[in-house]
UniProtKB/TrEMBL annotation:
Highest taxon, organism lineage: Eukaryota
Pfam families to which the protein is assigned, alphabetical: B12D (PF06522)
Protein name: Cytochrome c oxidase subunit NDUFA4
Entry-linked InterPro entries: B12D
Amino acid sequence: MVMPGMTLESLKKHKSLIPLFLCLGIGMAGAGFYLTRLAMKSPEVTWHPKKNQEPWEAYKEKTYKFYSTSSEPPVSPAPKY
């Protein structure tokens, strides 16, 4: 037995479920995109630790914020050893 609204035939009878599934799908796609972006672009994540021992050094002159309104070069919060 299949729950109502889970097949195309029953979805045609329950039209009010279509926006729910649409919003849920968009939310899941957005969350997936953001998690993928964090895993690929974040300075705290390294995929090749043997090749690049200190990946955060590449971000001294880069902006790694999601959205930046300033066009000035960023000041790195990393300590200088």
